[in-house]
Design goal:
This protein is of the alpha/beta class. Helix content is about 25%, strand content about 25%. The chain starts with a strand and ends in a 7-residue tail after the last strand. The structure holds adenosine-5'-triphosphate and magnesium ion. Adenosine-5'-triphosphate binds near residues 17, 19, 40, 41 and 44.
Length: about 280
């Protein structure tokens, strides 16, 4: 499988704390990777380093063969806006904008005209089960609906990789599972890779692979370097509650559009904006 995103020997320290102690991770095209591990083990730090939000102290990050960790902040910011999509624990939608404009915003930041951006944004609502909610403001949506809007926003610019850090952490279990499935299906169906931090072992079942992080290291049992199966294989997990720091600068990310067919569990699910919306 072609590697889309690769981290080599990533090291990150916060004072005396070694948050990442030399971590390698390779993410294939369209691959969904779940990152699990106890609170404080380095999951968010790993995600932030891979996503160009945080500069590692050591190691390298490559996107499609191009080294990105040494880019200037300005370039990394542009990269985050165009090649990456982000979904965070609390959607982070702009409260004063209708849902469709929240989705359209990254497209407009990328230079798409307002009319085209809103038109493209609207195509996501049907496939994500949000038909009729285009004009609602985030405060008028349920938590699960708001996260689906965040998923649409993450995919609207058609990113190479979507990063999600506990995207269902603020939802009840059933809603969280529905939302996570949509996230996995929508990213996979659109050929975007997914790197998702989760504490929910159930979530790992919809991903292709689970990577376990402990004390700033990826466990050997996590399967790094193993051949990647085309379907999904679940991995065991454990519960863990963690709280959540802030996410640094993601105010200016953008992201992309989707279309897809998938289903880690064998069911064909279509998430094709503009087709079945
Ligand atoms: N900005 C920071 N300043 C100082 N220490 C930090 C900072 N960010 C993370 N750390 C430390 O680095 C380690 C890894 O943190 P990280 O946020 O990556 O953990 P995590 O696995 O995401 O945990 P959780 O499940 O609670 O979100 C922890 O010991 C944490 O206290
Ligand atoms: Mg975290």
């Amino acid at each position: 499988m072609t590697a889309v995103l690769e981290g080599f020997d990533l090291v990150k320290r916060f004072g005396a704390t070694v948050a990442l102690g030399g971590v390698a991770l390779r993410v294939g095209r369209g691959e969904a990777v779940a990152i699990m591990g106890p609170s404080g083990s380095g999951k968010s730090t790993l995600l932030h380093c891979l996503a160009g939000i945080m500069k590692p102290d050591g190691g390298e990050v490559h996107l499609l063969g191009q080294r990105i960790d040494t880019m200037r902040e300005r370039e990394r910011s542009a990269l985050r806006r165009t090649r990456f999509g982000f979904v965070f624990q609390f959607g982070q939608l702009l409260p004063e904008l209708p849902a469709e404009e929240n989705v359209a915003l990254p497209l407009m930041l990328g230079g798409v005209s307002r009319g085209d951006a809103v038109r493209r944004a609207r195509e996501w609502f049907g496939p994500l089960g949000l038909g009729g909610m285009e004009g609602r403001r985030p405060g008028e949506l349920s938590g699960g609906q708001a996260q689906r809007v965040a998923i649409a926003r993450a995919l609207a610019t058609r990113p190479a990789v979507v990063f999600a850090d506990e995207p269902t952490g603020a939802l009840d279990q059933a809603t969280g599972h529905d939302t996570m499935r949509l996230l996995v299906e929508a990213t996979r169906g659109n050929d975007a890779s997914l790197v998702v931090v989760t504490h929910d072992p159930q979530v790992a079942r919809w991903c292709d692979r689970t990577v376990e992080v402990r004390d700033g290291q990826v466990l050997a049992s996590a399967g790094y370097g193993a051949p990647l199966p085309p379907g999904g294989h679940g991995a065991g997990g454990y519960g863990d509650s963690g709280d959540f720091g802030d996410f640094g600068d993601f105010g200016d990310f953008g992201d992309s559009g989707v279309s897809g067919v998938s289903g880690a569990d064998g069911t064909a699910t279509r998430i094709l904006p503009g087709v079945n919306g």
